[in-house]
Amino acid sequence: MTQQTLNVDLGDRSYPIFVGKDLFLSSMLAPYIRGNQVLIVSNSTVAPLYMDALRAALPDIQIDEVILPDGEEYKNLTYLNAVYDELLTKKHNRTTTLIALGGGVVGDMTGYAAASYQRGVNFIQVPTTLLSQVDSSVGGKTGVNHPLGKNMIGAFHQPQVVLASVDALETLPDRELSAGLAEVVKYGFIYDEAFLCWLEENMADLVARDSGKLSQAIYRSCEIKAEVVAQDEREGGIRAILNLGHTFGHAIEANQGYGNWLHGEAVAAGTMMAADLSCRLGWLTRDDVKRVESVLLAANLPVRPPQDMSAADFIELMSVDKKVLDGQLRLVLLKGLGEAVVTEEFSADLLQETLTADSYC
Amino acid sequence: MTQQTLNVDLGDRSYPIFVGKDLFLSSMLAPYIRGNQVLIVSNSTVAPLYMDALRAALPDIQIDEVILPDGEEYKNLTYLNAVYDELLTKKHNRTTTLIALGGGVVGDMTGYAAASYQRGVNFIQVPTTLLSQVDSSVGGKTGVNHPLGKNMIGAFHQPQVVLASVDALETLPDRELSAGLAEVVKYGFIYDEAFLCWLEENMADLVARDSGKLSQAIYRSCEIKAEVVAQDEREGGIRAILNLGHTFGHAIEANQGYGNWLHGEAVAAGTMMAADLSCRLGWLTRDDVKRVESVLLAANLPVRPPQDMSAADFIELMSVDKKVLDGQLRLVLLKGLGEAVVTEEFSADLLQETLTADSYC
Fold first, then answer.
1. Contact criterion met (CB < 8 Å) for A117 and B152
2. B208 CA: distance to closest CA in chain A (Å)
3. Beta-carbon neighbour count of residue B162 at 10 Å?
4. Could you give the domains of chain B?
5. pLDDT, tens digit, 9 for 90 and up, residues B35-48
């Protein structure tokens, strides 16, 4: 097996995800380019590694580039404007295709540039981190951060195709591989206990970058996300379960400064907090919480929030989170391993216990 | 008759437009507000005139305001960011409703802020200029300008409801009333010769601000636009006929500096150029061109492009226009009065004749 194809079923916005090795081939990309202009957006870390291979896989048309500095702190309106500048300076028209070559930051910004340039142009994702392969590949969420909140400006915009190449993971730093695994195990926690068992058994191989097993994990993660998103494209309901650990996690990222804790690391610690609160509600057993902790530890992820963050810090930062509806904090919690709910059915006291606990439930 | 209702039929994005007098009533707005937060965006000219009346028509919920400076030159990412700042500082959540109180600039920016804030929130239009009542009320186009092009950043985002109050036109400067009439007569030119005849007969009353006749003109204009948009929501085809005069017009606005020529004035001169080229193609008679010119003159509109603009200026500026597909310039031209086509079937020589003509065909 060098490649698997997953079709994301969204009616007239359906598209394929290719997962596997040796994907930087012309036959993979050319069929998805409509006009005769392409803008590749990448960052200063990824471009030197994969830009040449990507360009070689494109037809002989106008190809322009924007290379952003690498980091979440550049995912903002200022750098988004650099993309618009290039598009307009090089006279890209409505049939242009934007290609995101990089991780989640590049994908989110490029997707949002594609959503908003001339009110919407085509978009291809070439995610080069595990996190972006299992998260941004499906769902169409695009956007940038605002100084007062993460992902506060954005749009839903689906790509024409996604190339999730495991070859690109060979150059990924260990810490980022682990951050990606936080989202992979999340799919097990919220939706599929069998997948969780498979991850528990194969975590050592995944950490060792076994490309076959990574492909399997990416494929199943995208498949689960696609099933959830297909039921709720605009995030009115069930889709919110994908945010397990994210409300706590966003608070951690905002408090620590974006980039100091990687997104996946913050989500891992947040997932532990969600598991802890679920246990205090009587929904998870202590053994369940131990399993959550063990698999996160096996993926080399943090399982405790930052020591310098108080309960008051969490409450303040979580109140601006998008999951707050009409002032009422909703959280994604676990009814069991493999089953998540979005709920406000927890007392402030129990939440306070989770936020101040010295050890888990 | 104090009020007529037009339903814009876009499936699950359908919404009503109320046209008439005395629309600033709670019964008109309250049913369309979902959450308990509202942000009103207006400008420094309109807010002193109508903000109090609008606030009085809203339920007793959190109401915040952003007052922008008045003018097309502020329709940019910087002022858009001022709207995001207010939304985030005041902790508006996903159920908030943005209300645009003003003309096209306020409507376009507020609509785009609503499209992009937290990936999309509710939006209500209260257009206070004739141009915005007959143009921005229907179609869902939102966006901001970029230094290198008008409306280059934006989204399609439909409002929950539009209140087109003719009362608000009492305070509109004469020049802006005329600019709005340029878009009204456009609907006759492209779609409905009978409406064009009605406008020819009633132009003096419209210029004199007869509120009954203005209501009729607004209603029929929105109705025509809604019929066209319903056939082509995302502007793949027929919808482009709404841009009669706009490719030439945008070039005039860009060349003269936004705001020096009002949008409607530039469209009027552009419409004459489109009529002239249509005549040179043998599609319009010279009498048809005279009728176009007469009704525009009766509305106190310019019928010639700026004297200091050369043919080369037009060609350069039109090549970046959104109507250019794959490098080929497409124009909206008239096959007859009441019938428009989007076409590239004109020779460069004929276009050059139109751009350099001392008098019309």
1. yes
2. 37
3. 28
4. 3-171 (3.40.50.1970), 174-356 (1.20.1090.10)
5. 999 999 999 999 99
